[in-house]
Amino acid sequence: MAFSPLNWFWGLFSLDIGIDLGTANTIINIRGKGIVINEPSWVAIDKRTREPVAIGAKARAMVGRTPASIVALRPLRDGVISDYEITQAMLEYFIGKAHQQSIVPLPKPRIVVGIPSGATEVEKRAVFDAAMAAGSRQVNMVPEPSAAAIGAGLPVNGPSGTMVVDIGGGTTEVAAIAVGGIVVSRSLRVAGDEIDQDIINYVRNKYNLFIGERMAEKVKIAIGSAFPMKEEKTIDVRGRNLITGLPESIEISSVEIREAISGSIGVIVKTIRDALDEAPPEILSDLIDNGICLAGGGAQLTNLDQRLSSDLRVRVWVAEDPMTCVARGCGIILENIDEYSSFLVGLEREPVTRTLS
User: Fold this and answer.
1) What confidence tens digit (pLDDT) does each residue in 43-97 have?
2) Both 138 and 24 in a single domain?
3) How confident is the model at residue 3, as a pLDDT?
4) For residue 240, which of 64, 102, 162, 264 sits 20 to 30 Å off, Cα-Cα?
5) Is 112 helix (H, G, I), strand (E, B) or coil?
6) Residue 256: which domain range?
7) Are residues 103 and 131 both part of a single domain?
8) Statement to judge: residues 171 and 239 lie in one domain
9) Residues 323, 227, 313, 263: what is their CA dihedral angle, to the nearest 10 degrees?
10) Could you give the count of Cα atoms lying within 13 Å of 94 in the half-sphere of its Cβ?
11) 180 shares its domain with 202
């Protein structure tokens, strides 16, 4: 990457930002300060003006409770931008909130933002433009599995092969990495959101009970598992009876929820198998020693590591604080931009970064 005296000068004063722009959560890492923002990727907007009335945790709390004039939505679906203007407004809000960490006005920040490894040129352009319009002076993009591996502390620049499985809200990213680059990757649009939907469908089909996304997520976190538990659990699930139309509460067990989500877990397992089938034998040999690292919020599903270890016959382990791995990796890249420059992704016919004069 070419040295720019102007960028170097501004870099002495700006709060450079690493962003995990996730379907479920947006996590912001400020260089030198660590994670400062971890909020849901929700925006509540006025239907008439399309102006945001709440962003982040406040908007998430409004889901299912808004009047007719307001709608709460997520501007990202399956890991990519589905509503450009709302995403830009959300980024502006979070970047402004991050800048509140300083008591003096600061230059526009450099940004490193994670993107799905399977993102198209149009999807990459949308992320790039939204970050620039939200107030960045320079945008670098990095595949999310690469950022997750760096954030998890994997030796990505060494000759030994490693593998990371980053399970977010909208996508599951699988990548084998060695010698400063991705050797094999898979991007699957089955992740936390699909698991929540599995729970909604199961409860509706078996109990004629309609539940919302928040209740499904609560059930997943409380009793969801991918492998039998030592002590199975139960939880009260509340929703609307589809026959009577009245509120109802039922008790559901972790065994039932494991059955409900088994299809999505099976798809994730198959995707990892496909990546292993394509990986060179040398990488597979390294994985016997290094194992497979799980990152992302979905990695916190109870006993998922045991399920994958059983099915793949390879040691699988969960990274420390898996939800923040991508954001932490983006922060590490900011601090060592030259060391990790091989992981940065550019746009077709353009350099990796564009700088505002």
Assistant:
1) 999 999 999 999 999 999 998 888 999 999 999 988 888 899 999 999 999 988 8
2) yes
3) 45
4) 264
5) strand
6) 192-260
7) yes
8) no
9) -80
10) 35
11) no
Give me the residue label for tokens 């970050």.
131
DSSP state of 90: H
- Lowest average pLDDT, out of 101-110, 236-245, 298-307, goes to 101-110
pLDDT tens-digit series, residues 242-300: 999 999 999 999 999 999 999 999 999 999 999 999 999 999 999 999 999 999 999 99
3-state secondary structure 188-231: ECCCHHHHHHHHHHHHHHHHCEECCHHHHHHHHHHHCECCCCCC
Counting runs of H as helices and runs of E as strands, what totals does the chain give? 11, 18
Q: Please give the Cα distance from 1 to 118 (Å, whole number).
A: 24
Q: Domain boundary at 260, 290, 306, which?
A: 260
Give the 3-state secondary structure of residue 183.
strand
- 19 and 102 share a domain? yes
Residues 241-258 as b or e (16 or more Cβ within 10 Å = b): eeeeeeebebebebebbb
Residue 306 lies in a domain: yes
**pTM for the complete prediction?**
0.88
Between CA 27 and CA 74 the distance in angstroms is 15
User: CA-to-CA distance for 241 and 247, rounded, in angstroms?
Assistant: 6
What pLDDT was estimated at residue 77?
Answer: 87
Burial-class residue 9 by CB neighbours within 10 Å (0-12, 13-18, 19+): exposed
Question: Does 45 reside within a domain?
Answer: no
CA dihedral 309, 214, 27, 330 (to 10 degrees): 30
